[in-house]
């Protein structure tokens, strides 16, 4: 038989409150502090929105690996399916949900019947969130703006130089281009000549009217 000194069936000391769950006071104190800070920040945002005459909308939490929204680097191909027949299994799509006949978005599993709805969906918050974007655009720096303006200026100057309306200017541009090509050929010929032993270059034999019956 167990003695009264043991106090428990397994030999451990017991009390009338040993069955209660214990809590980490430091952890819950930190949680309370974080909650208070978040509440104060939200209250400040509500106050600033009220002063500006706007309605405060609580933002959803952003994933830590979400990237900033960027412009599309390629054009949307909305004309490749014109005039083509597409086989779709029966019952594969219910409304817009699922893959059906039309423009299908794999990230959101939605199908749209026309390209306008498809483009609007690509710019929507739902699609941006499903593709891992925050929906916010990064603010460009002063150096990036200057580089962009310089690139646009160079591009405009090149287009103006190519688009010549006057016939005299066209002839002048064509002559300059021909002179540059002739100078490039002369430079390559001189380099090839310097590579030979005597510096005379590789002799080229040309036959007049070669292969032509006169």
Automatic annotation (TrEMBL):
One GO term of the biological process aspect: mRNA splicing, via spliceosome
Keywords assigned by UniProt, alphabetized: Metal-binding, Nucleus, Zinc, Zinc-finger
Signal peptide residues on this chain, from the entry's feature table: none
C2H2-type domain segment(s): 105-127
Cellular component GO terms, alphabetical: spliceosomal complex; U4/U6 x U5 tri-snRNP complex
Gene3D superfamilies: Classic Zinc Finger
Keyword RNA-binding annotated: no
Protein name: C2H2-type domain-containing protein
Biased composition (Basic residues): 185-196
Database matches in InterPro entries: Matrin/U1-like-C_Znf_C2H2 (IPR003604), Snu23 (IPR040107), Znf_C2H2_jaz (IPR022755), Znf_C2H2_sf (IPR036236), Znf_C2H2_type (IPR013087)
Pfam families in alphabetical order: zf-C2H2_jaz
Positions of the UniProt region annotated as Disordered: 55-75, 172-214
Biased composition (Basic and acidic residues): 65-75, 172-184
Organism encoding this protein: Aplosporella prunicola CBS 121167
One GO MF term: nucleic acid binding
SUPFAM superfamilies in alphabetical order: beta-beta-alpha zinc fingers
């Amino acid at each position: 038989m167990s003695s009264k000194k043991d106090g428990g069936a397994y030999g451990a000391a017991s009390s009338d409150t040993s069955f209660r769950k214990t809590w980490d006071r430091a952890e819950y104190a930190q949680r309370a502090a974080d909650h208070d800070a978040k509440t104060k920040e939200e209250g400040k945002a509500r106050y600033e929105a009220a002063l500006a005459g706007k309605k405060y909308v609580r933002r959803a939490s952003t994933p830590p690996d979400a990237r900033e929204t960027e412009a599309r680097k390629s054009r949307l191909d909305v004309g490749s399916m014109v005039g083509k027949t597409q086989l779709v299994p029966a019952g594969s799509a219910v409304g817009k949900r699922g893959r059906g006949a039309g423009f299908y978005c794999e990230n959101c599993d939605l199908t749209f019947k026309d390209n306008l709805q498809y483009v609007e969906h690509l710019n929507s918050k739902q699609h941006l969130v499903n593709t891992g974007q925050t929906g916010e655009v990064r603010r460009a720096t002063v150096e990036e703006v200057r580089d962009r303006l310089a690139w646009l200026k160079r591009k405009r100057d090149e287009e103006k130089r190519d688009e010549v309306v006057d016939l005299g200017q066209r002839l002048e541009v064509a002559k300059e281009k021909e002179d540059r090509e002739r100078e490039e050929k002369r430079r390559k010929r001189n380099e090839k000549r310097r590579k030979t032993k005597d510096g005379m270059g590789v002799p080229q034999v040309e036959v007049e009217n070669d292969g032509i019956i006169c």
